[in-house]
Design goal:
single chain; about 280 residues; alpha+beta; six-stranded antiparallel β-sheet; 7 helices
Length: about 280
Amino acid sequence: MWTQIVGKIRLELTPKVNHWWNVPLYLSSRGLYTSIIPYENRHFDMEFDFVEHKLLIRTSDPKTASVALAPRSVADFYQELMSTLHSLGIDVEIWKLPVEVADPIPFDQDKVHAAYDAESVRRLWRILLTADEVFKVFRSRFVGKSSPVHFFWGSFDLAITRFSGRRAPERTDPDPVLRKIMQEAYSHEVISAGWWPGSGPVKEAAFYCYAAPAASGFAEQKVRPESAFYDSGVGEYLLMYDTVRSEASPSTALLEFLQSTYEAGATTAKWDREELEAK
């Protein structure tokens, strides 16, 4: 919930970028941060410091402030963050309802969620750091349009997305709001891979890859390493995180997964791989 609050502040104050690339957070040497956010004639950024467990707010003035990361309610965190921003001369209104969660509670009313496990957060950040490093190697092998490696706070995953350059079919989601959001996210053909700590039917942390739209035959392709598999329930190839950890070379196993699942999507969808891939 706290990353959603910070992410929504970035979303509110930054220019809209295709595929919602003005939404995510990025890995830093201390945690997760927003990148630079313009505000009137000033600039600021925010960083979740998972070493000292505080949210840092740095301005170009250069005034700074922080909010403690410790067990406290979402409402309490929200109120202190907004008050701290106000003390720095920054006032922003955000949509207070969380996204991509069941039974959302507005941030300023959420006294239900109040946990903060510092060690689990630190471990999450260390996992994200190692995944980020490998994802960036994978990104360097593609000369077509590619997303940065970024952390989406709604789905809570670290992701890297490649594009074919071709338009995707119009979305037909029944919910008009969701359709608008998804149309922007998937306006063009993509193959997206990432890591997330598990949710819904996938109970454990996993690396994933999906194609949107997925071409006929995508789910039947042979991918590497052998422990990777296609999960028809979520419509994605999965490689469980604990499996990668047990490999002799986890980075090699992860790169094999990223490359082979990309090839599964690009080949079945007939992407122009000769033009898109680094020689």
